[in-house]
Amino acid sequence: MSSLFLIGDSDKKSSKSDGSNIQNSTFSKLLNFAPPFCISFHQFEVMAEPAYTVASDSETTGEEKSSSAFPEIAIGIDIGTSQCSVAIWNGSQVELLRNTRNQKLMRSYVTFKDEIPSGGVSYQLSHEHEMLSGAAIFNMKRLIGRVDTDPVVHASKSLPFLVQTLDIGVRPFIAALVNNIWRSTTPEEVLAIYLVELRVMAESRLKRPIRNVVLSIPVSFSRFQLTRIERACAMAGLHVLRLMPEPTAVALLYAQQQQQLIHDNMGSGSEKIALIFNMGAGYCDVAVTATAGGVSHIKALTGSTIGGEDFLQNMMRHLLPDYDNLFSSRGVNEIKSMGLLRVATQDAIHKLSFEESVQIDVDLGNGSRICRKVNREEFEEVNQKIFEKCESLVIQCLLDAKVQADDLTDVMVVGGCSYIPKLRNLVKSICKRELYKGMNPFEAAVSGTALEGAVASGISDPFGNLDLLTIQATPLGIGIRANGNSFVPIIPRNTTMPARKELVFTTVRDNQTEVLIVVYEGEALKAEENHLLGYFKITGLPPAPKGVPEINVCMDIDASNVLRVLAGVVLPGSQQPVVPVMEVRMPTVDDGHGWCAEALHRAYGSNLDLVTVQKK
Amino acid sequence: MASSTSLYEVLGIPTSANGNEIKAAYRRLARTCHPDVVSMNQKEMSANLFMKINAAYSTLSDPNKRADYDRNLYRWNSPFCSSATPTAAASVSGFSGYNSGRNWETDQCW
User: Fold this and answer.
1) Contact A64/A71 with Cβ under 8 angstroms?
2) What is the ipTM of this complex?
3) Interface of A with B (CB under 8 A)
């Protein structure tokens, strides 16, 4: 009973949890004591309070389109690791919204210096160093939804605020230094504070309440990370209409531009294949899209957690080889020195995009001073591995899309790192093309989300500028643990969405009565190296020799990107399932349960294992 | 049921269609059938339809898969095997009777 009528955990629907819980218990009592009343009560309840009928506990996205006669246009938000921006379809074109300081691109950070935390939308830093005093949290996009065994979290320990790990697979502890106190927070909270500022800014510019948003997200984000982004949005009172992988947002902008060219009689209607390389401070993503008639068909997506932050950290360690030792104690003075070095190095990297060499002169205040010349070659050498990774991402994406460099019509390099000469050159040389010049590399992703926001809000444009559609592909494979400790993908990556695929498995032991279905997302061959999405048992299998029961596991991603896993058991010669089919919405894992898979393994070993069956 | 419809019929094109015509048909159908462009209450139906369209497209747009499919199509359409139908990539899954929604009828699909 309770699970059927659960109203959604207070975690996710905090705004209405109080009232509904009371109603919920009343409801249960009525159902328990007076069955004849329950139908009418139910009907009454639905009519009186439609919001009461929440479909599922794990539901984080609700209605897709606004049902009102005057649809509210959703805004597009690009939350970058380093900078954020907001854009909206203004009726004739995409417009980026400016804050009170007339900025379109705002620094992504929240400072806890005062009673009320403030972020980079409203707050004016007196100096860059203020952001690095320990009081400000930034790079939330690198931290959100990650556990403390994640190498990315470990790399974040060199940031000038507190990132503490216990290395057991729980959420990392992060804190800002306020009046000599480490004040703890979470990446979701920091992001929510920032999103509230963006929302206030957008509401004051547009003079109406803002609720619906389309956000761009890195390709490599797991479904668990997506739930954390949705959670941060919910905390900020925003409803996520769609989460768009960043390069697919750029692809949509490109699709619209090609449509406009046709309207202006300057373009041909034939299919264009474009490669989009998007690298910001935190992530590097690549997509290949086939575009014609306003339809952007995503052929392949690939991404990795590498970005400007890695260039910066490599350079800081290059300039100060003793970096990790010097800053391990994290006192106030160390944080200050760390901040000084960070600013100087960041400056130098920016300049190296336009100059062959730069002079660095920074007094770290702890007796050491760095005074030297750095040239572009040195920068490229120090970051050799990152450039190699970028290369491999581009090659991989072309391969996955089954596209040759010669087939490409256009190649785009966008994002915060797009002016780095080495990056531009490597993309140009793999793709054998000059780069597309038709879009602002810093505004492309947010413009795409604004277009998607308008389209998803049901807005149409008399000139056909919104006759757009993105056919998305899955960025990561989804499958289960089977054949020992292997990851067996059921929906491979780059599958067109919506998607439904199934595979048949069987038992590994005679008279095995239970099987454990552990669902992962990722690309690694070993199950535990992927992102855990959830797990459940099928019980009550009738005794049978190993290899006989057919365990059919089906995965379904619907149009709203909701993943459901269905599993059922049939015995040969029968069409009827021997036990009720399990249907589970994923992800089901909650925050910081990186240790779950390990615990499952410890508890059950291989007793509940599965192996794949070759389909006849 | 879907299995009796050829992939060409799914895309609404003649069996002689060339690569560009296949792509154009796919995009034209996507513009009307993709869940993103239909109204709220049709999403589930359109998701199923679009998956079928996409399966047809992914077979017919790949020259090798299309050749295989065409061979089977020809064989099954010959007078000796008239009762069978080609399934290829668009084969109906064991869960197809399950209407992809949260409607508690899961066990009816088996």
Assistant:
1) no
2) 0.80
3) 55-56, 63-65, 67, 270-271, 290, 292-295, 297, 455-456, 467, 469-471, 496, 498-502, 552, 554, 556, 558-560, 566, 568, 570, 575-577, 580-581, 583
